[in-house]
Design brief:
Low-confidence stretches of chain B: 1-5
Oligomer: heterodimer
Number of domains of chain A: 1
Largest interface: A-B, 29 and 37 residues
Distance between the termini of chain A: 49 Å
Largest sheet of chain B: 6 strands, mixed
Strand order of the largest sheet of chain B: 6-7-8-3-9-10
Number of domains of chain B: 2
Distance between the termini of chain B: 52 Å
CATH class of the largest domain in chain B: Alpha Beta
CATH topology of the largest domain in chain B: Rossmann fold
Mean pLDDT of chain B: 92
Number of helices of chain B: 11
Number of strands of chain A: 0
Structural class of chain B: alpha/beta
Mean pLDDT of chain A: 90
Strand content of chain B: 15-25%
CATH superfamily of the largest domain in chain B: P-loop containing nucleotide triphosphate hydrolases
CATH architecture of the largest domain in chain B: 3-Layer(aba) Sandwich
Radius of gyration of chain A: 19 Å
Shape of chain A: globular
Strand content of chain A: under 5%
C-alpha cells in the first residue's frame, strides 16, 4: 500500500512539473531543456530555509516558488529574444549550471551527498490538492487572453506582432509562471522525499517532461496530464520486468509519436465536453 | 458602431515619405512616398518585385526603414515596435494568409482584441468576474466581426479547414478586431475567383462605410483597383512612378509601360 501511495505522490509531483513544461513548450512553442532546474531551485531554496531558519512549510514553499521565478527571470530576460532552437541550448546550459552549483557548494547544499533531514510536510492529499489547484490555474491561464495570445505567437510570431501582441513580454510572463509552478513541484518533492540530491534534477528529467508533453499532445493540457499520469507511473508498473522496462517505455513512446504525430490528444481538451453540453442546452 | 465613427473620419491620416530599405545590395524600396487621408481608400500597384509588400512591412514595423518617415495622425511610428504600431491603429492582412493555426475561428479574431483587454494576470489565472466579463464581451464583438464578413456559424471551425476565400475573410475580420484607423490589405483578392472578387469589393465597400477607416491596399486585379480606390500610387523599382486619380493613372503612358510593357 505504501508503495502505491508513494508512486501516486511522485506522479502527482511530476504532473505539476509537466505543467511548467506544457506552458513553455505547448503554449509558447519554446523548448525548455532545463525545466527541472527550476524544480531544483524551488526544492533546495525551500528546504534550506526550513533547515537553517526553521521557516514554516507554507512560507518556505512560497519562498521556493518565488526563488524559482527569480531564476526564471534570470534565464527568461535574455532568452525570450532568441530563436526557438537557441532557447533550448540556453535553458539546457542553465539547467546543467544549476546542477554544478548545487554539487560544488557543498557547505550550503550538501553537494553530491545531498541535503538530508528535511522535515516531512507533504503527503498524498496535499499533493493531490496541489495538482488540482495548479491545474486550475494553468487551465484558466490557457483559457484567457494570455493563453490565446501564446497560441497565436506559437503559430505565427510575425502575424501575432501585427495583431498588437507584445510577443517578448508574453513569453516572459508565461516563462515566469511556468518557473514558479515547476519550483512548487520542487518544494513538494523536497518535503516529501526529505532528501535532495542534484542528480535528481538533471536534463534527463527535463527531457522526460518534454516527451510526456509530446506524447499527450502538444496542444492539449488534458493530454499532457493524462500522459504524465501514464508515463510517470509506467516504469514503476513495469518493475516486474525490470531489465526491460526502459525499453518497453521507449517503444511505447516511439509508437505513439510515429502513429499520432500530434500526440494522443492532439488539441482536444476535456473542457470541450461541458462547453458542448452548455451549448446544447442553449440551443 | 457608434455615431462618431459614421461621421466624417478625423483619424487615420497616414503619411509616408522618403522610405528607403536595402537588403544587402538590393534597394527594395528607394525613396517611396504616399499618403492616405482619413477615410480614403488608396491603392498601391506596380509590377512584381517593385517593393510594395516591403513598403507595407516598413510601415507596420516588420522591418526598420533605412531612412524615411511614417506618420499616423501626426505621431511618428518610426522606431516603434511592430506590436506598438499595431496597437496605435494600424491593422493589416497578409499576401500569403497567416492565420493562427492552434486556435479556432472565433479565437483567431479575439486575439486581435486581446491586447486591449484590461484584466491582469491574477484575474486571468483565477478566472475572476472581471476576466470573464471582458472575455465574454470580446467574444461577442468577435462574433459581430465574423458576421460582418460573412463567417457566421463557423466560429468553432479550424482556420486551416476553411476554403481559401473564407480564410481571406477571416484575416479581414481579425484585422477589424484590432479596431484599426488604417487597414493595410496586401493583395486581398489574390486567388479569389471572379464572383468572389465582386463579393469582396462589395464587402470592402460595406466595411468602409461602416467603420470609415482609411484603407491602403496592394492589388493586381484592375477590377478591384478601379472599383475601390479613390487614389492610386504606382510603384516601380522601389520608387514612386505616378500617383493620382485611378482613371488618370491608368491612362498614364509611363505606368502602362512599366506595368504591362510597351504597346506594340
Amino acid at each position: 500500500m505504501d508503495y502505491i501511495y508513494s508512486i501516486l505522490t511522485l506522479t502527482g509531483i511530476t504532473m505539476i512539473g509537466v505543467m511548467g513544461t506544457y506552458m513553455v513548450t505547448g503554449l509558447t512553442g519554446q523548448f525548455s531543456f532545463g525545466q527541472a532546474a527550476f524544480m531544483a531551485v524551488g526544492g533546495y531554496v525551500s528546504a534550506m530555509l526550513a533547515l537553517r531558519f526553521n521557516l514554516p512549510f507554507a512560507a518556505a514553499a512560497l519562498a521556493g516558488s518565488a526563488a524559482a521565478m527569480l531564476a526564471g527571470l534570470l534565464v527568461g530576460v535574455p532568452t525570450v529574444r532568441l530563436r526557438r532552437d537557441y532557447i533550448s541550448l540556453v535553458t539546457f546550459g542553465f539547467g546543467e549550471a544549476i546542477i554544478s552549483v548545487l554539487n560544488n557548494s557543498a557547505q550550503l547544499t550538501g553537494g553530491a551527498e545531498g541535503l538530508v533531514n528535511i522535515p516531512k510536510r507533504v503527503d498524498l492529499p496535499l499533493v493531490l490538492l496541489s495538482v488540482i489547484g495548479c491545474l486550475l490555474l494553468v487551465a484558466c491561464y490557457k483559457n484567457s487572453k494570455y493563453g490565446r495570445q501564446c497560441l497565436a505567437l506559437r503559430s505565427d510570431e510575425l502575424a501575432a506582432r501585427s495583431m498588437g501582441i507584445d510577443v517578448n513580454r508574453l513569453k516572459l510572463v508565461t516563462f515566469l509562471f511556468a518557473s514558479a509552478i515547476t519550483g512548487y513541484a520542487g518544494v513538494l518533492y523536497a518535503f516529501y522525499a526529505q532528501y535532495l540530491e542534484p542528480g535528481y534534477f538533471n536534463w534527463t528529467v527535463s527531457a522526460e517532461w518534454l516527451i510526456i508533453v509530446f506524447v499527450g499532445g502538444i496542444n492539449s493540457l488534458t493530454g499532457a496530464m493524462v500522459s504524465a499520469l501514464i508515463l510517470s507511473s509506467l516504469p514503476e508498473l513495469l518493475r516486474f520486468a525490470s531489465a526491460w522496462r526502459i525499453i518497453i517505455y521507449c517503444v511505447i513512446v516511439l509508437i505513439i509519436i510515429n502513429y499520432r504525430p500530434n500526440g494522443i490528444f492532439g488539441d482536444w481538451e476535456i473542457s470541450r465536453l461541458w462547453k458542448k453540453s452548455a451549448k446544447g442546452e442553449k440551443a | 458602431m457608434s455615431a462618431a465613427q459614421q461621421s466624417t473620419p478625423t483619424s487615420g491620416h497616414l503619411e509616408v515619405s522618403g522610405l528607403c530599405k536595402a537588403f544587402g545590395g538590393v534597394q527594395a524600396v528607394n525613396g517611396f512616398s504616399f499618403d492616405a487621408k482619413p477615410g480614403e481608400i488608396v491603392g498601391i500597384i506596380g509590377p512584381n518585385g517593385a517593393g510594395k509588400t516591403t513598403a507595407f512591412n516598413l510601415v507596420t514595423g516588420v522591418y526598420t526603414p533605412d531612412s524615411g518617415s511614417v506618420v499616423l495622425d501626426g505621431v511618428s511610428l518610426g522606431g516603434q515596435r511592430q506590436d506598438q504600431i499595431a496597437r496605435q491603429g494600424v491593422g493589416r492582412t497578409f499576401q500569403n494568409i497567416r492565420l493562427f493555426k492552434g486556435l479556432n475561428v472565433l479565437e483567431n479574431v479575439m486575439t486581435a482584441s486581446d491586447p486591449y483587454a484590461d484584466y491582469n494576470f491574477f484575474s486571468a489565472v483565477l478566472a475572476l468576474p472581471a476576466k470573464r466579463a471582458s472575455d465574454r464581451q470580446a467574444a461577442e464583438k468577435a462574433r459581430e466581426y465574423l458576421d460582418l464578413v460573412g463567417l457566421c456559424g463557423l466560429e468553432d471551425d479550424r482556420p486551416e479547414s476553411l476554403p481559401y476565400g473564407l480564410q481571406r475573410k477571416l484575416e479581414l475580420a481579425r484585422a477589424l478586431a484590432l479596431r484599426p484607423k488604417v487597414i493595410l490589405l496586401d493583395e486581398p483578392a489574390a486567388g479569389l475567383n471572379p464572383s468572389e472578387v465582386r463579393e469582396f469589393i462589395d464587402l470592402v465597400k460595406r466595411l468602409h462605410e461602416r467603420f470609415n477607416f482609411t484603407i491602403v491596399f496592394i492589388e493586381h486585379r484592375m477590377e478591384v483597383v478601379m472599383n475601390l480606390s479613390h487614389k492610386l500610387f504606382v510603384m516601380s523599382f522601389g520608387k514612386l512612378l505616378a500617383s493620382g486619380a485611378p482613371e488618370a493613372v491608368r491612362r498614364n503612358p509611363e505606368v502602362i509601360e512599366a506595368y504591362i510593357g510597351e504597346e506594340e
